[in-house]
Amino acid sequence: MKKGLFKILAKINKVVLPSLYKKDPNRLTTFQKAILGYRYWVTTNALD
Question: Which superkingdom, per the lineage (predicted)?
Answer without folding.
Answer: Bacteria
